[in-house]
């Protein structure tokens, strides 16, 4: 399994004028290429697009050679994603505009790393910048990780951070050779509920995420209703804090989940495939914000890469009826579930609804293992994941 992680390095830049001008020129190049793609009416491959825009990027905008290549690849990837969203009827063809806040670098070509210094290619050639080397970063800078395409990011306060992308191969046990499974049901009241093959279970972060969302939602409503300058300053101050707190909570919960799996000798963790769930489900106006701000994909991603580091595989199973199916008699009915209570109308089996979901996910992950064995398949490839 290829594990990809992003280490955030805080840079020590007394004079940021050169970096500001470099990022500005890079953004100007991206907006120029974006306008070209928009006029073409459809995305082009990076090689074909580079032949069209490369002379302008180099001669008129003044970008270095590798910068120009990175601009073309980044814009191409953005429009390919837009095309997928258009096919899914989620958006329409539009011109994408970039802001001067990020810049992509390729390791060995336009950035290097040496001890506590980063060498970056700027408009005036290669420059070295110091970064704060904290103890938790040492494991990624000891030579066991390979560096890939990384980003220079400018925060709202003008401070620059370097998002260093690291990757390495980790050994995980194949699904066909596994015997102990664990299902993880992610939700909004309880952030996650886990259940193993031998029926050991644990509930994680009950109600804290939902309370946090409600607190910040009510705070924004009060400030927006006032509309004063001081209220707008406070809204700007609060911007991003909720997201950072949720990300931190997902990191802590995913770590606890993987530790619980290690303690119970789990070989495979089963997760629900929740892609497109926001489009498939309907919610009331009152619950819409909570539903759409549910960071389930981030939590699942954190579980996957943390499990991979411990040698534990992950599989995604069909989420249909996991909270309505009785794990004892397999009877499916909406009447089985009443909010957080589950009582099977057929056999009378009763349990917490989220725990029912976790046990059904574990059962489907185990069934998936036997399906692979019958078909003679090897372990399917695992998605590459990134985190901070």
Task: Write structural notes for this entry.
With 388 residues, the chain is of the alpha+beta class. It folds into two domains: 2-169, no CATH class; 175-375, 2-Layer Sandwich (Nucleotidyltransferase, domain 5). It is 41% helix and 22% strand. Strands 1, 2, 3, 4, 5, 6, 7 and 8 form an eight-stranded antiparallel β-sheet that branches. α4 (208-226) packs antiparallel against α5 (229-238) and α6 (241-263) packs across α9 (296-309). The longest helix has 24 residues, at 17-40. The protein is globular and about 75 Å long. It starts with a strand and ends in a 13-residue tail after the last helix. Residues 163-277 form the Probable transposase IS891/IS1136/IS1341 domain.
